Amino acid sequence: MKINTRTKKPDWLKIQLPNTADYKWMHQTIRDNKLHTICTSGKCPNAAECWGAGTATFMILGDICTRACKFCNVKTGKPLAVDTKEPLRIARSIKIMKLKHAVITSVDRDDLEDGGAGIWAKTILKVKELNPGITQEVLIPDFNGLHHLIQQVIDAKPEVISHNLETSRRITPIIRSRAKYDLSLEVLKYIADAGVVAKTGIMVGIGETEEEVLQTMKDAYNVGVKVFTIGQYLQPSKEHLPVAEYVTPEQFAKYKKAGLEMGFKYVESGPMVRSSYHAERHINALKAEN
């Protein structure tokens, strides 16, 4: 895999976060309630835009992951004890922030017997209880492929369940510390077969070929995935995997066209796209079809 460590970030990747009162207020609300968001932990470049659209991505089960993937900025190590009051705090914060759509993700908790599935279900249900009418997308770990744990999340009935493939089959063992490509496909198939909207996403610019991206999209479509996202990988620190290539907006547009032609209901493909980017639009687009 060819790694380019000298290429400067192109103009299409340069953004400036707005210094607005709403942005500061939502950031303060998250801090005051001792919550974690992937918007901040993952250094997402779209935080202000999503928050301004009434969407935020919360990260449950702490901010320390049991896995150490080479692309991820979330801390890794021994997690703290599970906070059983977290579901209520998440739900209350969503109400205070007046969110229309909530995305919930988590660190991997391989240290827990249930992988955190119990807290997952409680969080989804508590958010619904305190925020009638809100829609939810959940971005879940693989739960080591255990169906009865994935089922707990399905039974809580979020509108969309996402699990990211992250990259192509060939690159998976290079950048993902424990997750397996085929296992992730099995998780997505189980979700889709349960009648839930299944979603996945990948990063590009880490050494993959165009053919590998297209094959990954086909693999996801063949197991029932309806929503697919593609974004540029950005190196979060010097200790993480370097960027191999900055993919052009034209190439992202090509991927989007190919995905829609394959049959995906919704494709987000662009340099600044992250898995939860414009998540509320996915819900609206799918509702319009029903």
Automatic annotation (TrEMBL):
This is Lipoyl synthase. SMART domains: Elp3. The keyword Flavoprotein does not apply. Its cofactor is [4Fe-4S] cluster. It is an enzyme of class 2 (transferase). One of its GO terms (biological process) is protein lipoylation. Pathway: Protein modification; protein lipoylation via endogenous pathway; protein N(6)-(lipoyl)lysine from octanoyl-[acyl-carrier-protein]: step 2/2. Belongs to the radical SAM superfamily. Lipoyl synthase family. Keywords: 4Fe-4S, Cytoplasm, Iron, Iron-sulfur, Metal-binding, S-adenosyl-L-methionine, Transferase. Transmembrane segments: none annotated. It is found in: Cytoplasm. It catalyses: [[Fe-S] cluster scaffold protein carrying a second [4Fe-4S](2+) cluster] + N(6)-octanoyl-L-lysyl-[protein] + 2 oxidized [2Fe-2S]-[ferredoxin] + 2 S-adenosyl-L-methionine + 4 H(+) = [[Fe-S] cluster scaffold protein] + N(6)-[(R)-dihydrolipoyl]-L-lysyl-[protein] + 4 Fe(3+) + 2 hydrogen sulfide + 2 5'-deoxyadenosine + 2 L-methionine + 2 reduced [2Fe-2S]-[ferredoxin]. GO terms for cellular component: cytoplasm. It comes from the Bacteria. InterPro entries: Aldolase_TIM, Elp3/MiaA/NifB-like_rSAM, Lipoyl_synth, rSAM, rSAM_sf. Binds 2 [4Fe-4S] clusters per subunit. One cluster is coordinated with 3 cysteines and an exchangeable S-adenosyl-L-methionine. It comes from Saccharicrinis carchari. [4Fe-4S] cluster 2 binds at residues 65, 69, 72. HAMAP family: Lipoyl_synth. Its EC number is 2.8.1.8.
